[in-house]
Amino acid sequence: MAGIKDVAKKAGVSVSTVSNVINGRHAKMGAETLRRVQDAIAQLKYTPNAVARQLQSGQIRTLGLIVPSVANPFWGNASQMIEKEAKERGYQVLICNAERDPEAEDSYLTSLHGSGIRGVILGSSPVSLDHLRQHAERGMRIAAFDRNTQGIQDLLACSVSVDQALGARMAARHLIGLGHRRIGFISGPIGTASRIARLEGLRAEMDRAGLALDQDLLWLGRTATGFGDSQAAELGRSAIRELLTLDDPPTAVFCVNDMYAIGALSGAREMGCRVPEDISIIGFDDIYLAKVMSPPLTTVHQPLQRMAQLVVAKLIDALEAEGEIPNRYLELRPELTVRSSTAHAAARPRETGAVAT
Question: Is the separation of the CB atoms in 343 and 119 below 8 Å?
Answer without folding.
Answer: no
